[in-house]
Write a structure and sequence with these properties.
The chain starts with a strand and ends in a 10-residue tail after the last helix. The chain contains 5 helices and 4 strands. It is an alpha+beta fold. A hairpin with a 2-residue loop joins strand 3 (49-56) and strand 4. It is elongated. The longest helix has 9 residues, at 14-22.
Length: 90
Amino acid sequence: ALQYRGKLLYFSSAEQMQNFRAEPEKYWPQRDGACPVILSETGQTVEGQLKYAAIFRGKLWVLSSAERMKKFVAQPAQYIDDLPPRSATP
């Protein structure tokens, strides 16, 4: 296990943990897991769920519900391209 961006992550093998450590951005959801549909529509940060995940432009995005996932998958650029700039990551 290791701590990353305030979350405790568990891995099924040392190799998987090393892969994550080498390239965390490859595996970590965009916007730290905030639902891009809610963020785009309201400006609010609401955590998505891995069961509602989608890949767009080679990046992992997690949505907060099946309804929001359908909206995102239908027009992902609409939600991604209009997001406010991301604040600096600690």
